[in-house]
Design brief:
Largest sheet: 8 strands, antiparallel
Strand content: 15-25%
Mean pLDDT: 92
Number of strands: 24
Strand order of the largest sheet: 10-11-12-13-20-17-16-15
Shape: globular
Structural class: alpha+beta
Number of domains: 3
CATH class of the largest domain: Mainly Beta
Low-confidence stretches: 1-31
Length: 696
């Protein structure tokens, strides 16, 4: 019998007290199950004892060496001191997150190498987690704990930890852990998911007023609706689902938990394109899709229920591969330390750089590649695991199989127009290859005001940039990095396109752009994106804002920007952002030409326009203590119709560009010449209402 959320919350604590001290029941036979472990071995939630030899072989592989060295380090004095003396129970975002990671990592390391110091660390961290009176920082109706992050993560970690510490836990300890999961973890996750499923029943979400680092300026009234289509749905779904698998058959609510967790994951699966594309950005794709995969794996292993095809997993790996942007290694400059949860991570290592549209601030990680490679026999997933992604989670060690086949991505992936209207084109997969990325498409959580913005990498370095680490709160100076002015994009009268004021967080705006033309051929790609809707929401007189790119691989990129207003005149600014977040980027201007210099590459550019224009440099108006963000700006004088053409050619640092010229006859623009021994000839005809006609 199904119960309401209210009855569930009332009965969960009482039911938890009756949990028996034994491990999970076997999978139900009517749904099938994976192969049983060898005789006498226990079935684990995530891996069996028979998997340990493969996992131990993985920790010795060069691919995992640095990660394992940090994970298994015995230099733990600071960690023990933190756990013993400095854990605050009203700092869920900071302290509880660290405690949970210490527990999960130490428990896993102990399962692999039986290190007694790791066991001591795990048991101390476990005790601190159980000491928390509540496992999350949010409330529903001002009273009931509502879980989005920490309650789910802690439920997952402790569920796995029972397996990994099994021979070192007493029945009483197991029972205490399971009661805490049933009382503090699962109910909080259930409350948030129930609220997303039935927002009309929500009394009101809020930060717990006792929480030290709550974002009290954020309005949560619409969060049940907003979060229903964001990564903060899969976290509690995975936490609730794995807790249900842990306790299935021994807790009266476990069946209802599992039903809500599975239905929530199935609903969220519609957020992925059929090609596997994901809107929130590839660094949010990592934990979001990993939550789905980990829950699906546990569900399959424990209940024999196969939800491993809710999304196109091989396709979503190709989305992640497409969003990689590997650069040449070089010593990074100083990176500002995050002040709080509202300022995200430090710089990504160059080898693991990404197409970072929106708040994407973290590298593509390998764990999903290892799981999809094993589960679906997909060689591109294995290639991501072996060559492209960064090792940041222990799941990769659990799933990696060195014997699985690996293959370069298929040639079609060199030029991708994804179903969410992002476009990425590249000359290859190595650090020195050229990559162009265009942000078209619609609104998304964690987005910036970045329609028609462009990222360009060539010869191993970022040359046209999208900012990292924008602030999550309007009270932070780095909030300004979210706006159009901080992107390689167009301003009209100095204004960007529509964006929200941040009072509800980092949710989506209303701004749309649309790819209206996309073509590829041997060694080239062209794309046109129309962002009229996005700008018209700020200036109703706007009739056209259109950007066309011509990419002559590997290192020539032509911009054609067209802006039309109905009745008024306007100035237009085409900005080209310099990557200086490692303090190694500069720019300079000479007449209609400019250059952007980076340690490994230089961008040489020249601009032309239908009217008067100037080329200058500037900086985003943000305190230097937050960083220096230079840009080049091509500024067109007031007019009703504008066309700006910018020719960009990249070279290795210190190398002169080729000889290329720009010319115009009526509405036809021509680029011709040579660059680095390659002939370049491009014509763009702008007459008519549609995208320009292009010939190469």
């Amino acid at each position: 019998m199904k119960q309401s959320r209210r009855n569930f919350v009332r009965t969960a604590s009482l039911a938890a007290a009756s949990l028996p001290f034994y491990h999970l029941l076997a999978a139900t036979p009517e749904t099938g199950a994976p192969a049983a472990p060898p005789s006498g071995q226990r079935r684990g939630l995530l891996f069996d004892e028979s998997d340990l030899p493969r996992i131990r072989a993985n920790i010795a592989r060069p691919r995992f060496a640095d990660f394992w060295r940090k994970l298994a380090s015995n230099d733990r004095a600071d960690d023990f001191d933190f756990l013993e003396h400095h854990v605050h129970f009203n700092r869920h975002g900071d302290d509880m997150g660290r405690v949970r990671l210490l527990f999960e990592h130490a428990a896993f390391v102990y399962a692999v190498n039986r290190d007694p110091q790791q066991l001591a660390l795990a048991k101390l961290a476990m005790r601190r987690l159980l000491d928390y009176p509540q496992w999350d920082m949010f409330l529903e109706g001002g009273k009931t704990v509502m879980g989005l992050l920490r309650s789910a993560e802690t439920s997952i970690a402790l569920s796995f930890g029972i397996d990994w510490l099994s021979d070192s836990l007493t029945p009483a300890e197991v029972g205490e852990i399971e009661r805490n999961i049933a009382e503090k973890g699962a109910p909080a996750c259930f409350t948030s998911l129930y609220g997303m499923k039935h927002p009309d029943h929500v009394k009101g979400w809020s930060f717990n007023p006792t929480e030290e680092h709550a974002f009290t300026e954020v309005d949560l009234r619409r969060w049940p609706l907003i979060l229903n289509s964001t990564n903060l749905k899969t976290v509690p779904a995975a936490g609730l689902g794995i807790a249900a698998c842990r306790l299935y058959g021994r807790h009266p609510q476990a069946e209802a938990w599992l039903e809500l967790a599975r239905s929530s994951m199935a609903e969220f699966a519609t957020m992925y394109g059929s090609d596997g594309s994901y809107d929130e950005g590839v660094s949010y794709w990592v934990p979001t899709t990993l939550d789905m995969a980990v829950f699906a794996e546990v569900l399959w292993r424990t209940r024999g229920i196969d939800d491993r095809r809710l999304i196109n997993y091989p396709g979503t790996i190709r989305y992640a591969v497409t969003m990689t942007l590997p650069r040449l290694e070089g010593a990074p400059g100083p990176a500002l330390a995050p002040k709080n949860m509202g300022e995200p991570l430090a710089l990504i290592p160059p080898r693991y750089d990404i197409v970072d549209f929106g708040d994407a601030n973290g590298s593509v990680e390998i764990s999903l590649g290892t799981w999809v490679g094993r589960t679906f026999g997909d060689p591109v997933s294995q290639y991501l695991a072996q060559d492209l992604g960064e090792v940041k989670y222990h799941y990769g060690l659990i799933w990696y199989d060195a014997a699985a086949p690996s293959a370069l991505p298929e040639p079609a992936l060199l030029d991708q127009h994804l179903l969410n209207d992002l476009v990425v084109s590249r000359s290859g997969w190595g650090p020195a290859d050229g990559v162009v990325a265009l942000r078209s498409g619609g609104p998304a959580n964690h987005e910036h005001a970045d329609r028609n913005s462009v990222i360009f990498k060539a010869h191993g370095d970022r040359l046209l940039h999208d900012p990292f680490r924008a602030g999550y709160s309007t009270t932070l100076p780095r909030w300004k990095l979210r706006l159009t002015e901080a992107h390689t994009a167009i301003l009209i009268n100095g204004q960007g396109h529509q964006y929200h004021d941040g009072h509800e967080g980092t949710n989506a705006s209303f701004a749309f752009a649309e790819v209206t033309a996309f073509q590829t051929g041997p060694g080239w790609m062209t794309v046109t994106s129309d962002a009229t809707d996005a700008y018209q929401r700020v200036n109703p007189d706007v009739r056209r804002v259109e950007r066309t790119l011509v990419f002559v691989k590997p290192d020539v990129l032509v911009f054609l920007d067209r802006v039309v207003l109905a009745t008024t005149t306007a100035t237009i600014q085409a900005r080209f952002q310099v990557f200086n977040e490692d303090e190694r980027g500069t720019c300079a201007v000479a007449g209609p030409t400019f250059r952007i210099d980076r340690p490994f590459a230089t961008l040489h550019a020249q601009a032309a326009a239908t009217g008067d224009f100037t080329v200058g440099t500037g900086r985003i108006a943000i305190a230097e203590s937050e960083g220096v963000f230079p840009f080049v700006e091509v500024a067109a004088a007031p007019a009703r119709e504008h066309v700006i053409l910018t020719l960009c050619a990249a070279t290795p640092a210190g190398e002169a560009p080729g000889a290329m010229t720009l010319s115009r006859q009526g509405g036809t623009w021509q680029v011709q010449g040579t660059h680095r021994g390659q002939k370049v000839q491009v014509m763009l005809a702008t007459e008519g209402r549609g995208p320009p006609k292009i010939s190469l």
